[in-house]
Design brief:
By secondary structure, this protein is α/β, with parallel strands linked by helices. About 65% of the residues lie in helices and about 10% in strands.
Length: about 600
């Protein structure tokens, strides 16, 4: 529940709409009590006609005199007419207040949930890359869809109902005390018993709710994974196997949900039964006060009984909200498990205006949280401005990790990364990112048009700049054949385009950004020879007058580099041009011979 209470900070951010909703709920509850209190003058007129006893001005200092003057101290028909007008007026005001309560409640609820969703997304955007390596995407999506929906429900059926029904219950309770304080005190002796029984259910409800949400997250994660790899599933003919896996997960969710609902469904009938039992006891005690003790009049008894029985509805709703609050508490715990994670933020303020001398790594060591050993060990490397540096080595030796450190995706465990003799994190984050472009083998295109994907690098670029970048990246060669040219939709992740076409759009994106430092992470290793030749032409322009770090399995793409960095087991084992390291580095010679001499 502590995490659920922490959601109140989002209420504070939207205090104005929430306050309006709160005031409307209080007025609604007050009018509920007043409308029920109108039963008293009606009963006095029916029981006593023109001899009805007057209301005590001491007990009811404002309402009492008005009822006496306009209803009880006038002729019966005039009193009935005045009472009818008063009842219509009260219910008109109540209708307006009810409308305002629902409207302001909805506005506050939507603003609060929007704030939570935006805060969660902003937090995820500032988490380190390592978080996404170890976190399932389906589980993250579940936070935005399932968990926030549960929090929203907890607000509407939880907090709002709690406020409204609590004040309604207080209004009815006040009315009951005004009618008979003896009966009211007697009834209060039984309430703690009901609360104790309901409280005992809450712990089990919370545990079962958390379990149900975890099962739903499993379904979302599995669905996301299968849809992302649907081609592999169909290629291996494992549709039936995956269907059975999915059925098992939905079956687990079904069982967990039923176990939660079995317990949750018990709250309402149990409350109704307890309240009915209390009403029966009150009826007997009220009869004693009227017929034997003579301390209670019939009209006051009926008002008390009406108020006591009306308490059933708010009490019933108050017990039901426990289910929603427990679901919201479990969901908020999952949300705050993300919001409480440490962010990867730079505190630097130096504006990065481009590399002037060199990038230098001094005694850099790094390991992932999930790994046992170091991914990079004692890395020392200098990359001068304008140099084309190639990183080569077998898979898994730390090439991509090294690049991720250079561009600030991770912090080194020890050692320093310097740009022009200044530590990387002393530079302003955004100005540094503006000077970097990354082109990877697995190009990611967003749903949208070809033009929109190119513009992603610089949304403020002109039409001429976009077309020039597309021409230099040879995008124009295939776009002219698309049905709507640059406005053609590429589909989810660019599924309607070939690998080479997606790669050229990625290069156009990099050209448009005009980066100072360029990262090519295995940018051509998955392409056929024809596509690779076209990409090389685009790369030739992109690499001009830029500092470039190139990762490639195909050594044909790095032979023209100024220097080659050979890596193995997280270490740099040799640095130099091809002509030198081929003769002295056995690993590089093996890689080179395997690719070139064997194919020859």
């Amino acid at each position: 529940m502590r995490d659920y209470y922490r959601l109140l900070k989002f209420v504070k951010r939207n205090i104005i709409p929430f306050s309006l909703a709160f005031i409307s709920m209080v007025l609604y509850s007050l009018l509920n009590g007043i409308s029920l209190g109108m039963l008293s003058p009606i009963l006095r007129m029916l029981f006593y006609h023109n001899n009805a006893p007057l209301y005590s001005e001491k007990s009811l200092p404002i309402i009492g005199p008005l009822l006496n003057r306009y209803i009880l101290q006038v002729p019966a028909l005039t009193g009935v007419k005045n009472l009818a007008i008063l009842i219509v007026f009260i219910y008109l005001v109540k209708a307006l207040v009810t409308y305002m309560q629902k409207l302001t409640g909805t506005i506050a609820q939507e603003k609060i949930t929007k704030d939570i969703r935006d805060t969660l997304f902003s937090k995820i955007m500032n988490l380190p890359l390592s978080f996404f390596h170890r976190t399932n995407s389906g589980a993250l999506i579940s936070h935005f869809i399932n968990d926030i929906t549960l929090v929203k429900t907890a607000l509407t059926h939880g907090i709002y109902v709690a406020i409204r029904e609590t004040f309604t219950a207080l209004a009815y309770l006040t009315l009951a005390f005004l009618a008979s304080w003896q009966l009211s005190l007697f009834s209060l002796l039984v309430i703690p018993i009901s609360l104790g029984i309901i409280s005992a259910l809450s712990k089990k409800l919370r545990k079962r709710s958390r379990r149900t949400q975890e099962k739903m997250a499993d379904i979302g994660a599995h669905l996301f994974e299968i849809l992302s790899g649907i081609k592999v599933v169909k290629g291996f003919g494992t549709e039936r196997r995956e269907t059975e896996k999915f059925k098992k997960k939905t079956r687990d969710y079904y069982k967990a949900s039923l176990r939660f609902q079995y317990l949750g469904a018990l709250a309402s009938p149990l409350t109704e039964f307890l309240t009915a039992g209390v009403a029966a006891i009150l009826l007997m005690y009220g009869g004693y006060l009227i017929f034997q003790a003579h301390t209670l009049t019939p009209d006051r008894f009926f008002v008390f009984l009406a108020a006591a029985l009306s308490l059933m509805s708010p009490l019933k709703h108050l017990t039901q909200i426990n289910v929603y609050i427990q679901e919201g508490a479990a969901a908020s715990k999952r949300i705050f498990s993300i919001l409480d994670l440490p962010e990867y933020r730079w505190t630097g303020t130096i504006k990065f205006e481009g590399l002037k001398r060199a990038i230098e790594l001094k005694n850099v060591n790094f390991k992932y949280n999930t790994g046992n050993g170091f991914s990079l060990k004692n890395i020392n490397l200098v990359i001068k401005k304008g140099e084309k540096v190639a990183l080569v080595g077998p898979s898994g030796v730390g090439k991509t990790t090294l690049v991720d450190l250079i561009i600030g995706f991770h912090r080194p465990l020890s050692g320093k990364i310097l740009l022009d003799d200044i530590e990387l994190e002393k530079y302003d984050y955004r100005s540094f990112r503006e000077k970097i472009a990354i082109v990877t083998q697995d190009v990611f295109l967003f749903s949208g048009s070809v033009k929109e994907n190119i513009l992603y690098a610089r949304p403020d670029a002109t039409e001429e700049e976009v077309l020039e970048a597309a021409r230099l990246a040879l995008v124009d060669d295939f776009v002219r054949n698309l049905p709507h040219g640059y406005d053609t939709e590429v589909g989810e992740r660019g599924v309607t385009l070939s690998g080479g076409e997606r790669q050229r759009i990625a290069l156009a994106r990099a050209i448009l950004k005009k980066p100072d430092i360029l990262i090519l992470d295995e940018a051509t290793s998955a392409l056929d020879s024809e596509s690779e030749e076209k990409i090389k032409k685009a790369l030739k322009y992109l690499l001009e007058d830029r500092t470039a770090i190139i990762i490639a399995h195909r050594l044909s793409t790095v032979l023209e580099s100024d220097k080659i960095v050979v890596m193995d087991a997280g270490r740099i084992i040799d640095i130099g041009p091809h002509s030198e390291i081929y003769s002295r580095c056995s690993l590089y010679k093996k890689l080179y011979d395997t690719q070139f001499l064997y194919t020859s």
